[in-house]
Amino acid sequence: xxPEQRPSIVIRRPDDWHLHLRDEALLEAVLPYTADVFARAxxxxxxxxxxxxxxxxxxxxxxxxxxxxxxxxxxxxxxCYLTDTISADEIKRGFEQGAWVAAKLYPAGATxxxxxxxxxxxxxxxxxxxMQSIGMPLLVHGEVVDPDVDVFDREARFIDDxxxxxxxxxxxxxxxxxxxxxxxxxxxxxxxxxxxxxTITPHHLMINRNAIFKGGLRPHMYCLxxxxxxxxRQSLRIAATSGDRRFFLGTxxxxxxxxxKECDGGCAGVFNAPNTMECLxxxxxxxxxxxxxxxxxxxxxxxxxxxxxxxxxxxxxxxSTGISAPDPVVVGxxxxxxxxPETEVRWRLT
Length: 350
Ligand code: DOR
Ligand code: ZN
What we know:
Bound molecules: (4S)-2,6-dioxohexahydropyrimidine-4-carboxylic acid, zinc ion
Number of strands: 13
Number of helices: 11
Oligomer: single chain
């Protein structure tokens, strides 16, 4: 039987190479959705205040592990939030001590809690120099913040204005172009010679920008970088299902309390942790590429980070009808609403 016809598939347990776990009550509420499925996750540092020191990263990891409880095998991989004034020595020591595995570049003002981010890449040259010398990956939110640049063009502009000049200067720096959303970014990664990889989210593989406006404004389809055109989504599908080792899963699952999204100035972020693997199986099935799902979700990420893939497995089973949307996640008096595409998802994690 070809993989495309199989009623179920077994793949190595996946990892999530880009995740927002938040803190306190939100952390407690969302963590199980990731920890029950994924073995490891790269945890984003955009807390308030951001995770900029070894002490803060260690304390955050402790809070995550406490929220996990006993008997869970999930391992959080911490990251350092880059600021204009961050010390290269702290970054290096944190990597060597295992406090963090990578550093995150948020252009200041690009997205949620990025106000303390980097105003100009030249400010962090000493940090990038240090990271290059120790093989520590740089994770990049790749959007320019210039308000004169159209929001749908900000990723493509970032490639020319920031990414390429930075990579030319730091040729041996390992870079992850995070949550790519455009054909331009996918093609840029395909064309790069070395040291560049990209994460792709389930939602950018499933929706285009029409979903944000369908039948009215749809705040739960709004994230940053914002979903782009259908042509871009098709390019992301080609990249994700290609088997090319430079593309791997980063969910960018970014929970927000519903009332903070369903309002004027609502927050960016799609909470997809409850159905990531179901959505991905659907996408790979539609592309006749189920045999590439393991590479994307479970093999390419660890290879980039120099880690072993997981040895345990998960099973996804084809359903005869579409699965329903995950229930809202209750946090005190509020809820978080999970992502659900309008198109059918016929796979279930079993
Ligand atoms: O949509 C997003 N939400 N994009 C980001 O870059 C940050 C994230 C968040 O933290 O909510
Ligand atoms: Zn993110």
